[in-house]
């Protein structure tokens, strides 16, 4: 059972109360609360519609995913519940055997037929010599009727909690530090619940019919008022004054009988005195009721608001509802706390309904799991399809790029081949004559050095080119000079001079030597520059003589009769001719 959110419902005779409680990190929070008065209390269908209306007003959302995560508990009045302690059960009974033993013992102890009843047990008291439990039972049709009030909401309750256990649960925190006996009376519209607490333990409970509606009927009988007026008047007439006094006597009489019945059932030789009486519920609002009870019973009596116990955080709940109805919410609040805090709640939910709900929860969880698994699978499939399409798109793009690059490579290879052919055509090809010409330029004096042999290998590959030649010299100095000239030349590299041999007579010996060398990296460029020297253009600066030409002179007088437009149309030649004529005329006059 998920115990994080609970909706607790208390359906009375005149109104329904619903509280929504959430447990977060061990703290209890009252999310919302509401009360609705029945439009027609005697019509179950109208009651069901009013409960649905209140449910919707509180905005409780039960979706497919949280349908079984919100527990719904409903209270059943103490007057419809029977309790009886089953003593003398076999003490050796194990926890697993206990439900069967209780079921066998209950058949003779139930106040009605077993097939017509719903029962459970709690308050297991075990000693080495004895074992006893408290049997809690009610009629099956009563539970069915209260569950039917939720038909309009479409909700099946997960627990049916007796009202006295709900009251004991909400009061337990307020009495946790007390060992005294306290009486709590919840005065409802049609019934009142009496609970005797020993510290925080419920010792005795009973229900009686002296309630708020009985006070209304008493006022209607004694004052001849209509129901609506009597309902209003009972909120103003003090408990010790007529006609409310008649009802107050009956109420106090029921309190006395309940206290006597509790002492008799507890069977205590020296019963502990009751320390205090707490009154709650709508009927407890009768003016001066607590003071009158205290005066008549000689027991301290006060009005009790279950919210004052501090068990719940009410900061988020509607303040107006809590201020107006807080003292009447003991039962629904107790139902919610009972489901959230008690490890094994005492529930009168029929077994078949519980089994059906468990099965529904299991199927619901399976559906959710299957839905999530299907969704995840769908997402994976979609992701796979998307990834596959993406990969195919990438493959297609890569194929297109490969084809494009292939075409570019083919074109580039063709272009490169053409450029290489062109470069090869434009590149100077060294010939043996270039080498001989270079050597001849280096050694112009044939009287000192003469060539005998000349050999060139691999001239097409500069890295592999080998040059060998034999020389005759008239002295060792000439050979050494030749070696220096070759080494200092930028055309040759790796010059190797072989063994020098002498020939001829002693007076005029001749020295022969073989030389091996290679061409340098700059040889090709140097040979090309030697073979194809750059042309040199000689430019001469022609000095222009300065000619002093006098500006043309024009006699203005001769221009008479010539308009500006005609002057614009006249050419420079015409103006020059006119200027010459004027100059000649001037010379003749002189």
How would you classify the helix and strand content by structural class?
alpha+beta
Largest sheet: 5 strands, mixed
Radius of gyration: 62 Å
- Contiguous low-pLDDT stretches (5 residues minimum) are 556-561
Output the strand order for the largest sheet.
3-2-1-4-8
Tally of strands: 18
| Molecular shape | elongated
Count the DSSP helices: 16
Strand content: 15-25%
Task: Name the average pLDDT.
Answer: 84
Distance between the termini: 145 Å
Instruction: Summarize the amount of helix as a percent range.
Output: 40-55%
Primary descriptors:
single chain, 590 residues, alpha+beta, 5-stranded mixed sheet, 16 helices, 42% helix, 22% strand, elongated
């Amino acid at each position: 059972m998920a115990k994080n959110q609970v909706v607790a419902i208390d359906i009375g005779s005149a109104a329904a109360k619903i509280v929504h409680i959430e447990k977060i990190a061990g703290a209890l929070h009252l999310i919302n609360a509401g009360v609705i008065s029945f439009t027609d209390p005697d019509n179950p269908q109208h009651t069901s519609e009013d409960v649905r209306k209140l449910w919707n007003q509180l905005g409780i959302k039960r979706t497919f995913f949280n349908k079984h995560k919100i527990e719904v508990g409903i209270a059943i009045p103490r007057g419809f519940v029977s309790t009886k302690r089953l003593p003398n059960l076999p003490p050796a009974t194990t926890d697993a055997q206990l439900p069967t033993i209780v079921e066998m013992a209950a058949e003779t102890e139930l106040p009605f037929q077993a097939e017509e009843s719903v029962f459970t047990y709690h308050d297991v008291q075990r000693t080495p010599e004895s074992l006893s439990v408290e049997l809690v039972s009610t009629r099956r049709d009563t539970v069915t009727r209260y569950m039917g009030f939720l038909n309009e909401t479409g909700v099946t309750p997960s627990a049916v909690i007796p009202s006295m256990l709900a009251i004991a649960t909400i009061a337990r925190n307020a009495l946790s530090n007390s060992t005294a006996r306290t009486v709590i009376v919840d005065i409802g519209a049609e019934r009142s619940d009496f609970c005797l607490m020993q510290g925080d333990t419920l010792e005795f409970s009973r229900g009686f019919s002296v309630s708020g509606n009985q006070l209304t009927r008493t006022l209607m009988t004694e004052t001849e008022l209509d129901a609506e007026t009597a309902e209003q008047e009972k909120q103003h007439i003090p408990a010790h004054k007529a006609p409310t006094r008649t009802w107050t006597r009956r109420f106090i009489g029921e309190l006395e009988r309940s206290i006597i019945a509790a002492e008799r059932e507890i069977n205590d030789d020296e019963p502990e005195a009751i320390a205090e009486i707490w009154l709650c519920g709508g009927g407890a609002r009768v003016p001066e009721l607590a003071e009158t009870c205290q005066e008549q019973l000689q027991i301290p009596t006060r009005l009790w608001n279950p919210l004052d116990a501090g068990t719940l955080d009410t900061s988020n709940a509607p303040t107006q509802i809590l201020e107006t109805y807080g003292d009447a919410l003991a039962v629904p609040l107790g139902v919610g706390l009972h489901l959230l805090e008690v490890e094994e709640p005492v529930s009168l939910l029929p077994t078949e309904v519980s089994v059906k709900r468990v099965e529904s929860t299991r199927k619901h969880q399976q559906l959710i799991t299957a839905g999530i698994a299907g969704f995840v699978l769908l997402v994976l499939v979609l992701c796979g399809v998307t990834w596959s399409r993406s990969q195919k798109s990438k493959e297609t793009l890569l194929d297109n790029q490969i084809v494009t690059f292939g075409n570019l490579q083919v074109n580039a290879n063709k272009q490169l081949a053409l450029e290489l052919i062109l470069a090869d055509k434009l590149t100077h090809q060294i010939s043996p004559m270039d080498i001989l010409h270079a050597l001849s330029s280096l050694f112009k004096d044939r009287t000192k050095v003469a060539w005998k042999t000349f050999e060139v290998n691999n001239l097409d590959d500069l890295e592999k080119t080998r040059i060998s030649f034999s020389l005759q010299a008239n002295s060792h100095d000439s050979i050494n000079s030749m070696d220096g000239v070759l080494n200092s030349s930028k055309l040759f590299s790796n010059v190797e001079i072989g063994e020098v041999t002498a020939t001829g007579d002693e007076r005029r010996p001749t020295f022969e030597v073989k030389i091996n060398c290679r061409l340098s990296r700059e040889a090709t460029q140097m040979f090309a520059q030697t073979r194809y020297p750059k042309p040199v253009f000689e430019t001469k600066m022609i000095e222009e003589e300065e000619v002093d030409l006098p500006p043309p002179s024009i006699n203005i007088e001769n221009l008479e009769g010539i308009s500006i437009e005609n002057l614009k149309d006249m050419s420079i030649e015409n103006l020059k001719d006119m200027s010459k004529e004027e100059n000649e005329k001037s010379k003749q006059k002189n």
